[in-house]
Each structure stands twice: as C-alpha cells, then as structure tokens.
Amino acid sequence: MICCCPDPANIEVNFRNHSANCGCIFGDLVRWFSESCHEEAGARFTSRDIIALMTGIFLSGAALSRIRNVTVRGLNGLERFQQVGMKSRLMELSIKYQEDVPMRFAITNRFLRAEIETHGGELVSLRDGSGAEYIWGGDPAFWSGRNPILFPIVGALKNGSVDLGGRSCRMSRHGFARNSDFSPVEQGDDFIVMELRESAETLSQYPRPFSLRVRHRLLDCGFSTAFTVENTGGESLPFCIGAHTAFRCPLFPGQRFEDYQLVFSHPEYASSPLLTPEGLIRQGTVKPILSGSSCLPLGYEVFREMDTIIFRQLQSGSVSLVYRETGQGVEMDFSEFPIIAFWTKPGAPFLCLEPWHGCAALDSESGRFEDKPFAVTLAPGEQRTLAYTVTLIPGI
Question: Is the pTM of this model over 0.85?
Fold first, then answer.
C-alpha cells in the first residue's frame, strides 16, 4: 500500500499487490457497517462508501481524527464514522491488517520525489524530474534491502552478543531498526520525520529506553537524512548508527557497473580492514586500496575478495559515485561520520554507500558496548544528531 499525503488532511491511497488483504477488509466493513444500521449487506453502504472510508484504515488515530476531505454521500469521512460508531472498529481492522502492509509516504519539491516507508523508516525511492530512479529497488536474487537504517549496532557482534551494563545482549547484524516499524510524527510537503521508540521486542535485545527520530528532507538537488537519538531513560545509552544506502549502479541502460568510479573530495592513502567469515574485523589486517589518488574505479573483483570496503577517518568528507564518461551520478556528504563503507554483491546492479558511526566488532575487542570503536554514549536526557546528504550530479 502507498499513502501519499503531504498533508494528512488530504489523503490519496493506492492499493498495490495486496488484493487478498483488501478483499478481507472490504468484506468485514460491508458486514459491520450494515450490522450497525440493522440492514442487509450492501443495502445502504455501497462499495464506493466503503472504499472511501478505507482510506483511514492504515492511519494512526491522530491522523484519522484529522480527515476532512474524504466525502461520502454529502458527509465527510469523520462524520460518517461518528454517525455509525465505526471508528473504533476501523482502528481494530487497522491493527489486524497493517502488520504486513507498511505505509509509504511521498514527499516532493519542484525537482524531486521521494518515498519513505514506515517499516524500517527508510527512504526507498528517489526520482528526478525525468522519472529516473536513483535508489536500488531491492531484489531477493541479489539483496532485498534498499536503504536500511543501522541501529543500535553497525555490523556483526562477536559471538552474536555484546555486554551492556553487565547483561549479555544478542542482536543480529546491523541491529533491529531496519526490521522495526516506525511511526510518522511530523510531515510537510518536502520532509517527513519517522520515530522508533523502545518496545518489549527491542528491550529484549537492547535493555534501554530510547527515541530514534529520522528526518528525511528533499533538497533542490538531492536529500538529507538526519538521525537524532535521545536517551529517554535513567542510565547511560551507548549506541552505534549508520546508513546503508543502495544506489542503482549502473543508473541507465547501456552502462555497466565497471563504467563507474568513486571520486573522493581529497586524494587519499587508505586501506581497508579485512573481515572474518563471521563479519568481524580482523585486528591489524588490512588491504591497501588508495595510494594518493582520489579515484577508485569500480569492479566486482575487490568485493569478491573482501566483501566490504571500509575506510576510517579519511581527509575527505564526501564521495561521488559517477559514470566515468559523463560524470553523472550522486555525491554523498558523510563528514559527520568517521567511517564510510562500500558494499555490493558480485554481479548486482547497485552499490551501497554507507556512512557509519560505529563498526563491526573487532575479533580482539572486550565485548563491552561502551568499548566498541566509534560508539556514542549519551547521558540521561541527552541527545545527538548525525546527518548525511546526497546530491544528484547531472554530468556533462
């Protein structure tokens, strides 16, 4: 399902690939509305009525109460809800059917359109005025991810666990945020703020209350994503955070992955640590990648050899992924993050640009969360914001 609603009071809903769920919802609504008026199904409430009122199913209670522009037989959607007393029933259906149908919100400006999903809180689409898509759409044949948020860890943990306040906490690679449902808390035409807070599920893995707000905003030539983590509890809150933004590479038909290169804002002497089969960083083992150059031609061979290229504390604060012939591509400013990583799967038509504040566990580390490289620790009531920006490069 896609909800495109720059203003929650003006709602456009398009159902896609969820015919079974929508059929169940439709049937229940016809029956329940008719029962409320002691009439046979369909005698008073037509399919047009039901479909109009279904626009509220996947909205939060706060947004639902603000509906004003959905009209049904001379009554707006909210008045009809109140008249037949069905608002609570509709919200029950929301919980019942929303579990596997994430909401998707659209934000736009004069030049660009982006889409953001509640599941994972991530920006999953970015199109320019010509309709060209820049974000990898996900394909299980290679990788179903698109732009996951890495929190509260980046990479893998040693033996799958980390010590937090004397408690052993188990988390899968890159943490739980990417598989969690976020809530929209603020939205304008060109931005949206998604929030994730602790739950019983997160506390079982990460026993700390927190707020993670993710602000996606369109710029004239790209977008920015800002992560704000707040310690809402009474104990210290250590965390790592990062992005895993997958860009289509190549961007256009007739191009090859090998026709692209990475261009850093400064010449670099940079090596990448090597990873163990479990995804841990091998302490003291590195592979030289850049030797005084600002350009790194792309090829799948290096990713067959070392899985992920990881650069720490470069002189550069930005890197561009560009088509060598024209210079067209994207630039990422990662200056607020100490690490930039690059990943793909051999043969896959995408490349991930990943700004990290934190990294996978070292094979020699202590196992304490606070000792993880580049982990951030917040005192109670403290918050920290880290942001990166992406700029589209038109080329020659």
Answer: no
